[in-house]
Each structure stands twice: as structure tokens, then as C-alpha cells.
Amino acid sequence: MKSILTIFLKKKTAFIAGSLFIMFMILSYQAGLKAGFVPFEIQCKEPVLYLETCKDEIEEQNKAFIQRITECKSNCKIDICKPICLKKVEEAMNNYHKLNELLECND
Fold first, then answer.
1. Residue-wise DSSP of 63-100
2. 25-34 pLDDT, tens per residue?
3. CA geometry: angle at 18 spanning 16 and 22, to 5°?
4. Which helix (H) or strand (E) segment is 38 a member of?
């Protein structure tokens, strides 16, 4: 009988020690989670700042692109219209000279 009592006490002691060890591990894990938790605002700060910088750069590039497109279209119109205008002016000057010659001859 004494041997059964000692085995039970030994097992009981091991069970209590094991239970305490497992409780300590669980409490340590919980404390580690609380201490090591980083909020998403802080954790994602750098990627968010990078995206904001990219967004600003894209807006600046779009403005520059629109300005270049506008300049290109206006320059193209000038390049296209200038020869036409010069031709019309030349025709008008020739017509004026012809008209002057006709008027002089009729006088």
C-alpha cells in the first residue's frame, strides 16, 4: 500500500509541476504577444509614405505631360498654319500688286 501511495504522490507532483510549467509557457506567450505587438499604422508606415511619394510624383509628371502635350499641339498648329498663312499673304500681296497695275493702266 505504501508503494501505491508513493507512486501516486510522485505522479501527482509531476502532474502539478507539468501543469505549472504549461501555465508558465502560456502566460509567457501571452505576455510576449502583448509586448511585441506593433500596430498596423506603425508597421505599414514606410510603405504608406512611399505610396504617397509615388502619388505626388505621378501628379507632377501628369502636369508636366499635359503641359508638354499642350505646347506640342500649339507648336504643331503654328508649324502647320504658318506656311498656309504665308501662302495666303503672298497671294494677297500678288493680287494687290496686280490690282494696282490694273488701276494704273486704267488711269
1. HHHHHHHHHHHHHHHHHHHHHHHHHHHHHHHHHHHHHH
2. 999 998 888 8
3. 115
4. none
C-alpha grid cell for residue 69?
A: 502635350
Q: What is the pLDDT of residue 5?
A: 56
Q: What distance in Å separates the CA atoms of residue 74 and residue 72, rounded to the nearest whole number?
A: 5
Tens of pLDDT along 76-94? 666 777 777 788 888 888 8
User: What value, to the nearest 5°, has the Cα angle with vertex 69 and ends 68 and 72?
Assistant: 85
Q: CA-to-CA distance for 47 and 58, rounded, in angstroms?
A: 16
> Would you kindly state where each structural domain of the chain is located, as residue ranges?
1-37
HSE toward the beta carbon, residue 73, CA cutoff 13 A:
5
pTM of the model: 0.39
